[in-house]
Write a structure and sequence with these properties.
single chain; 119 residues; mainly beta; four-stranded antiparallel β-sheet; 10 strands; 49% strand; globular
């Protein structure tokens, strides 16, 4: 079955960096558009980034544009999210998910990894 396992979260200070990873299995990762979404405390899911299967296209939410980079390694079936210049409002549980900006809502996502940014 589909498994998505996120890692790399943690506690970081304002302006710090983190690199999240998502290990995928149980399906053909290399032909699947993938996204990162997040859920802040008390809020709903927020889409933040999508990458197409061949990495040709990456899209970012305005709230994170210029501070994060999505990438993937189709040989390792792994999705990444490099986050720089982190802000307290980036505090959330981060999930990887199959699908694009809206399609992820109907697809599998992982258990999430907590990112906490202190000021």
């Amino acid at each position: 079955q589909v498994q998505l396992v996120e890692s790399g979260g943690g506690l970081v200070q304002l302006g710090g960096s983190l690199r999240l990873s998502c290990a995928a299995s149980g399906y053909t990762f290399g032909v699947t558009t993938m996204s990162w979404v997040r859920q802040a405390p008390g809020k709903g899911l927020e889409w933040i980034s999508t990458i197409t299967s061949g990495s040709r296209i990456q899209n970012y939410a305005d709230s994170v544009k210029g501070r994060i980079t999505i990438s993937r390694d189709n040989f390792r079936d792994t999705l990444y999210l490099q986050m720089d210049n982190l802000k307290p409002e980036d505090t959330a549980v981060y999930y990887c998910a199959q699908g694009g900006r809206t399609g992820y809502k109907n697809n599998e996502r992982g258990q999430g990894t907590q990112v906490t940014v202190s000021s």
